[in-house]
Amino acid sequence: MSRPPIVVRTLPALRGALTGLRARNATTALVPTMGALHDGHLTLVRLAKRRADRVVVSIFVNPAQFAPHEDFASYPRTWKADLAKLAAENVDLVWNPDVKAMYPDGFATSIVTEGPAVVGLEDRFRPHFFGGVTTVVGKLFTQCRPDVALFGAKDFQQLRVVTRMARDLDLGVKVIGAPTVRERDGLAMSSRNVYLSPEQRRAAPMLYRALKETAKRIGAGGRIEPAVAAGAKQVSEAGFALDYFEARHAETLAPIASTKAGPIRILVAARIGSTRLIDNIAV
Ligand code: PAF
């Protein structure tokens, strides 16, 4: 039996609802989202339920992480369907502030990130992005004060940046990364996949195929540079405009030249038509 979650849209209502949820020392997990929920988000919710007594999902399309030329206005908003999915998962609370509640008039403070946020991956192509993400996630953490928070590994650099921020600012929340959920053909689930035309959708799984083949080559002892170049070529030949295809140290995201230098993560970002997709894989 599904039960609709409590939905709150103001900070006083959120505080009241959280006091109720935390009765008898119940622990809470937060799953931050921008809505347009798919199975990747629902997997985070299910993991959250295993890590805490109560689950809070935030739905907020955060204008601060979109550049003016990006898709803030057209980002898919599917409130009714989202709520039905969260009810079916027995989520306890949905935090759904509007922009004014999150960024009141005169809002003038944001979080500045370094370390994994300035390694020349997403930050090179979306320079506004991590400032926007960390400011909103920092606010979500202080608003909801969860014991744990769950983020998908598809946004691998985001996961590293948020983990670092929670540690650096002593936010008292354990950040947990969850494996990427994929369609049957390997395409990483993303709210932006709905933008793909049927032809682009057919080409899209090439990203994961190229990542897998590159990881296999490096894992089998192949040199990183030629393996990565071959992966990049595969992606470009499938019709993508490549932003990056790189092997990085899986913890620091610094460039890495050899498997002896630490665990490796291969990360890709590429555009097909006007849709930008990202993905990554461990070696
Ligand atoms: O990954 C996302 O959906 C967003 O970047 C997040 C973490 C909810 C912050 O707006």
Write the layout of secondary structure elements.
Elements: E1 6-8, H1 11-21, E2 28-33, H2 39-51, E3 54-59, H3 79-88, E4 93-95, H4 99-102, H5 122-125, H6 129-144, E5 148-152, H7 156-168, E6 174-178, H8 198-203, H9 206-219, H10 224-237, E7 241-249, E8 264-272, E9 275-282
Parallel strand pairs: 1-4, 2-3, 2-5, 3-4, 5-6
Antiparallel strand pairs: 7-8, 8-9
Helix pairs in contact: 6-7, 9-10
Please provide a written account of the structure.
With 283 residues, the protein is α/β, with parallel strands linked by helices. The chain has two domains: 6-178, HUPs (Rossmann fold, 3-Layer(aba) Sandwich); 191-282, Pantoate--beta-alanine Ligase, Chain: A,domain 2. 37% of the residues lie in helices and 19% in strands. It has helices spanning 11-21, 39-51, 79-88, 99-102, 122-125, 129-144, 156-168, 198-203, 206-219, 224-237, and strands at 6-8, 28-33, 54-59, 93-95, 148-152, 174-178, 241-249, 264-272, 275-282. It is globular, with a radius of gyration of 19 Å. The termini are far apart. The model has no long low-confidence stretch (mean pLDDT 97). Bound molecules: pantoate (PAF). The site of pantoate has 10 residues, from strand 2 and helix 6.
